[in-house]
Structures are given as structure tokens and as C-alpha cells.
From TrEMBL:
The chain crosses the membrane at residues 27-50, 94-115. NCBIfam families: CDF. Keywords: Membrane, Transmembrane, Transmembrane helix, Transport. This is Cation diffusion facilitator family transporter. It comes from Tepidiphilus thermophilus. GO terms for cellular component: membrane. InterPro entries: Cation_efflux, Cation_efflux_CTD, Cation_efflux_CTD_sf, Cation_efflux_TM, Cation_efflux_TMD_sf, CDF_Transporter. PANTHER family: MITOCHONDRIAL METAL TRANSPORTER 1-RELATED.
């Protein structure tokens, strides 16, 4: 039996799977924190180690943070809806911001507590050795959870899990402070606890500032790093059909990338072919950058960043051209069914196709009179740089193919271009 080709999961399914993985990871961290907090409270009360009880309160406070991580993971994995057309990735970014602020607050709290403890060393209560065992056990458990959460965060590219990992490191640091304080108290060196608390407080506050800063940058739509933007631009420029790239904007949404780009294609390309080039660019970007969520590709026929404002709107409009063509005697019974306007370099280029059923009457018309009428049309629209007239001929016997007869545009000399506007 032939093996069936595997169908890749949809982006929505991938986002849901990632969100569920983040939620499961945070729930496991919550279970570990709850167990440690319960043991710390029991042993802290029995061993007269109030610092251990305080650390347990800190651990219980972390449970609310873990709950926020779980909520953010599930919310960010939800598919786009009417109210959130770009998805819910910013929920994860917001949670990272909150966690960063929490880390900053915890760090400042350690710094303040360290100063208070240095002023009241003589009031430290006697501590039982069992408290030191619990403090070291908590320290090892929290440090192990830090490495596990950070590894999961990098694997899932989830900033919120990396922030939670550093929060676990802050918990381990607080447990280290408690262990040093308890050990110092047992050995007679009580000043070690507040000094360690001050050092750890500075480290935690620095991490909080870093995570909050990254989240704020994403919330205000800061672009990607220049190196990553250069790689995206190179992928666009080397796509077949793209002649130039003159504008690119990027931003992040959680682990996803959003791109807006203006590409330049051949000036006389059809709309459908230009759209095909844009689709090719999008497919190439998604192939080379797996975390690209979407790219809005704007197709230009020329570099519009150098075009004077309002230039296109000042050129001849299709409605005006069609109206004037219908008013010409030569086209009274031979109306063209294909009118194409190209706007290039501030000028208008007009192509006309007369269908085969009207070809005999047009070809039998007085050529001089026809050219006179077309010249009048050009005089009415001074921005017309050229006018090409094509006549569709009936299929030749036995060929089944149609031919086009072009009445050369050279037979209708173009007017001189306006001053300061080069003829194309």
C-alpha cells in the first residue's frame, strides 16, 4: 500500500498546539511551586525559620504569575477573529510586560529588605538545622525549574516562558539568600544574608527591566533587527519577476513576524501577472522564514517613493478616454473592447484593440481621417505619450488562430513632452 503524503498542519492548528504546550508547561511549574510552598511553610514554622515562611509566601505569589502565563499561552494560541484579525499574539507580549514589571518589583523588594536586615541583625531568631536542608532543597528545585522553563521557552520561541524561567531563577536566588542567611546564622555570620539579598535583588531588577523593555518594543511595533530585515529584503529582491524593492516594514507579534513590502515589476505587466509575482514573493518568504505569519506585498510599476504627490491623479482617466473614443466617428461602429492605460514617468500610454467583427469597417475607413481623429484625441489629453491601435483579424482558414494587425503608433507622432518631463 502506497504511503500517503503527510499534510502539513494549518497555521491556526500550529498556533493552538503551541499555546497548549505553553499552558501545559506553566501548569507543571505551578504544581512544583505549590508543593514547595507547602513544605516551606510547614518546616519553616517547625524550625522557627521565619525567612523560610516568607520565601514560601513569595512562592505562593508566583502561582498567580504562573496562572497569568497559562492564560497568556492559551490566549495567544487562539485563531484570529473579527475583533483580533491579526491573531492574539499580543496577549503573550502583554503577559511578558507584566512579568517583567513583577521581576523589577521583586528585585527592588530584595534591595529594600537587604537594607532593613542590615539594620536589625541582632533581632534574628534562632534557627533549626532542618530549615537549612529545606532551603537548599528549594534552591535546587527552583534552579532546575529555571533551566527547564528556559529550554521550553526557547524551543517554543515563547518570551513569556523565558520570562517565567527567569522568575524561577529569582525564586532560586531568594532561596539562596535564605540558605545563606540560615547557614550564616548557624555559623555566626549573620551579615551574609542581607549582602546576598542586595546582590540578588539587583540581578532580578535588571532582568525585569530587560523583559519589560523587550515587551514594550514589541507593543509599539519596533521593527526587526537590521540583519534580519536585510535577509528578508534579499529574499524578495531575488524572486523572479521582482525588479526592485523600495520599501519594507517589519514588526513582531509574539513569536511571529509581519512584513509589509513594496515591490517593483515590469511597467507593462498585467494586473494578474503582477499578482502572481506577489504570490511568489509570499511563498518564498514563508519557505525561508518559518515564523513569518503574513506579508502584505504591494505591487508597483515604478518607484512611487520618488513620484510627486498627486501626479497619477492628474493623468488621463479611463472613463474620460472611453467617452472620447466613443465620440470619434471612426469608432462609431467599431468600438474597441480592449482599452489599456499605462501610467509611466508622469505620462499616459494607451493601447486599443478592435475586435475581429469590427475589423473590416475600421480597415476600410479613410486612414488619413482616422489618424486625424486619433491626433485630436491626443491633443485633448496632452499627457498621452503614445497611442497604439491593434485590430484583431479573423482566423486564417485551417489555422484556427487569430492575428493582430497593428496600426503603427509611429503613424501618429506623439506630441513633445512637457518641459522637465523626459519622454519615455
Amino acid at each position: 500500500m502506497a504511503e500517503q503524503a503527510s499534510i502539513p498542519p494549518s497555521p491556526a492548528a500550529t498556533a493552538r498546539a503551541r499555546g497548549n504546550a505553553i499552558a501545559r508547561t506553566s501548569l507543571a511549574a505551578m504544581a512544583v511551586n505549590a508543593t514547595l510552598a507547602l513544605l516551606q511553610i510547614v518546616i519553616g514554622l517547625l524550625a522557627n525559620a521565619f525567612s523560610l515562611v516568607a520565601d514560601a509566601m513569595h512562592t505562593l505569589a508566583d502561582l498567580s504569575t504562573d496562572a497569568m502565563v497559562s492564560w497568556a499561552g492559551r490566549s495567544a494560541g487562539a485563531p484570529p477573529d473579527e475583533d483580533h484579525p491579526y491573531g492574539h499574539g499580543r496577549f503573550e507580549t502583554f503577559a511578558s510586560l507584566v512579568l517583567g514589571l513583577v521581576l523589577l518589583g521583586v528585585g527592588c523588594g530584595f534591595l529594600w529588605a537587604a537594607g532593613m536586615r542590615l539594620q536589625a541583625l541582632e533581632h534574628a531568631p534562632p534557627i533549626e538545622p532542618a530549615a537549612l536542608v529545606m532551603a537548599v532543597t528549594t534552591l535546587l528545585a527552583k534552579e532546575g525549574m529555571f533551566h527547564w522553563l528556559r529550554r521550553r521557552g526557547r524551543a517554543l520561541k515563547a518570551q513569556v516562558l523565558e520570562a517565567a524561567a527567569w522568575h524561577a531563577r529569582s525564586d532560586a536566588a531568594s532561596s539562596l539568600v535564605v540558605a545563606i542567611g540560615i547557614g550564616g546564622s548557624l555559623a555566626g555570620y549573620r551579615f551574609l544574608e542581607p549582602l546576598g539579598a542586595a546582590l540578588v535583588g539587583f540581578m532580578i531588577a535588571s532582568m525585569g527591566v530587560r523583559f519589560a523593555y523587550r515587551a514594550v518594543r514589541e507593543l509599539v511595533d519596533t521593527g526587526l533587527d537590521p540583519e534580519e530585515v536585510a535577509r528578508i529584503a534579499d529574499a524578495i529582491r531575488t524572486t523572479p519577476g521582482v525588479e526592485d524593492l523600495h520599501q519594507i516594514r517589519t514588526r513582531r507579534m509574539a513569536d511571529r513576524i509581519l512584513v509589509d513590502a513594496h515591490i517593483q515589476v515590469a511597467p507593462r505587466l498585467s494586473v494578474s501577472e503582477g499578482h502572481r509575482v506577489a504570490d511568489t514573493v509570499l511563498a518564498r518568504l514563508k519557505e525561508r522564514f518559518p515564523h513569518l505569519d503574513d506579508a502584505l506585498i504591494h505591487v508597483d510599476h515604478e518607484n512611487d517613493t520618488t513620484r510627486p504627490p498627486g501626479q497619477l491623479q492628474a493623468l488621463t482617466d479611463r472613463t474620460e478616454v472611453v467617452q472620447d473614443l466613443r465620440a470619434l466617428p471612426a469608432f462609431a461602429a467599431a468600438s474597441p473592447d480592449w482599452v489599456v492605460l499605462h501610467y509611466l514617468g508622469g505620462r499616459t500610454y494607451l493601447d486599443l484593440l478592435v475586435p475581429a467583427k469590427h475589423a473590416p469597417s475600421l480597415l476600410a475607413a479613410d486612414r488619413a481621417a482616422l489618424f486625424s481623429q486619433l491626433d485630436a484625441l491626443r491633443q485633448r489629453h496632452p499627457d498621452l505619450a503614445s497611442l497604439r491601435l491593434f485590430v484583431e483579424l479573423a482566423p486564417e482558414p485551417g489555422t484556427g488562430s487569430e492575428k493582430l494587425h497593428q496600426i503603427s503608433a509611429n503613424e501618429v507622432p506623439p506630441p513633445p513632452p512637457p518641459a522637465g518631463n523626459a519622454s519615455l
